[in-house]
């Protein structure tokens, strides 16, 4: 499940709407919180045009989802690109995603991977996951299971359920990492917990099925150690 940044999270990540925080920006923020998207868009556009990076990102989202304005992928890409070029990680991720898919911009997997990396290096968990997947598939980058595992691990450490699931599989097969049944079982336990926390019942069931399969090649001692490590990561060490 993707972890999308909310209104407050993006603003706080940048310390507010810059010098224009009081007045229109504050009103725009309030409009977004109450889901008055048309009013929020009306207030955001002037701020974005003046170079406010958070407003640029929010105008991009408005065009992406058709909130307060007719959906327009090309316009969304344009505004995300402005914010991305100024270093905003969520916008860099959006540019990478849109370019990789060829939505609102010419399809270019290599350029998409460049933007994923920019966002991933700033800790954006969605970008970390998609960069890992790009390395796993050789999409826009040379296929590299070691790099794939490295980026899955970064996303998994942030609690990203799908990354935990994929990392478990890599430890099971020894692809990109040393084969390790304890790590495979631990990461699948953590994936199951993350899916449960996200309310992803079907994916949680899939993780449970995979745990049953892993159990067949994992000793009781290894399972106990995996559970201990999972508890420690969850802050529940006995």
How would you characterize this protein structure?
The chain is mainly α and 238 residues long. Helices cover 71% and strands 0% of the residues. It has a domain at 161-238. The protein has 13 helices and no strands. It is elongated and about 60 Å long. It starts with 6 loop residues before the first helix and ends in a 5-residue tail after the last helix. Mean pLDDT is 90; it is low at 1-9 and 11-20.
Terminal CA distance reads 29 Å
Query: On the 0-100 scale, what is the average pLDDT?
Result: 90
Largest sheet: none
Strand content: under 5%
Rg from C-alpha positions?
A: 20 Å
Low-pLDDT regions: 1-9, 11-20
* N-to-C order of helices and strands: HHHHHHHHHHHHH
**Helical content class:** over 70%
Counting DSSP H or I runs of 4 or more residues, the number of helices is 13
Class derived from helix and strand content: mainly alpha
Bulk shape: elongated
The total beta strand count reads 0
What's the arrangement of secondary structure elements?
Elements: H1 7-13, H2 21-33, H3 37-49, H4 53-65, H5 73-85, H6 89-101, H7 109-121, H8 125-137, H9 145-157, H10 161-173, H11 181-197, H12 201-215, H13 220-233
Helix pairs in contact: 2-3, 3-4, 4-5, 5-6, 6-7, 7-8, 8-9, 9-10, 10-11, 11-12, 11-13
Summed up:
The protein has 238 residues and is mostly helical. It contains 13 helices and no strands.
Name a few traits of the molecule.
238 residues, mainly alpha, 13 helices, elongated, disordered N terminus
């Amino acid at each position: 499940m993707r972890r999308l940044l909310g209104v407050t999270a993006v603003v706080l990540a940048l310390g507010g709407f810059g010098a224009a925080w009081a007045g229109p920006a504050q009103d725009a923020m309030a409009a977004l919180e109450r889901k008055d998207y048309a009013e929020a868009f009306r207030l955001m556009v002037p701020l974005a045009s003046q170079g406010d990076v958070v407003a640029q990102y929010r105008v991009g989202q408005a065009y992406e989802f058709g909130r307060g304005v007719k959906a327009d992928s090309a316009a969304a890409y344009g505004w995300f690109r402005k914010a991305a070029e100024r270093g905003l990680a969520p916008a860099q991720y959006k540019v990478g995603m849109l370019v990789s898919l060829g939505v609102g911009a010419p399809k270019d997997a290599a350029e998409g991977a460049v933007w994923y990396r920019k966002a991933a290096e700033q800790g954006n968990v969605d970008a970390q996951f998609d960069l890992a997947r790009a390395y796993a598939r050789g999409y826009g980058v040379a296929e590299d299971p070691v790099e794939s595992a490295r980026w899955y691990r970064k996303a998994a450490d942030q609690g990203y359920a799908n990354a935990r699931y994929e990392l478990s599989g890599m430890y099971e097969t020894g692809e990109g990492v040393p084969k390790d049944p304890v790590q495979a079982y631990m990461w699948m336990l953590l994936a199951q917990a993350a899916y449960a926390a996200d309310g992803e019942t079907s994916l949680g069931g899939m993780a449970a099925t995979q745990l049953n399969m892993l159990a067949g090649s994992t000793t009781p001692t290894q399972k106990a150690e995996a559970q201990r490590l999972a508890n420690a990561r969850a802050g529940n060490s006995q």
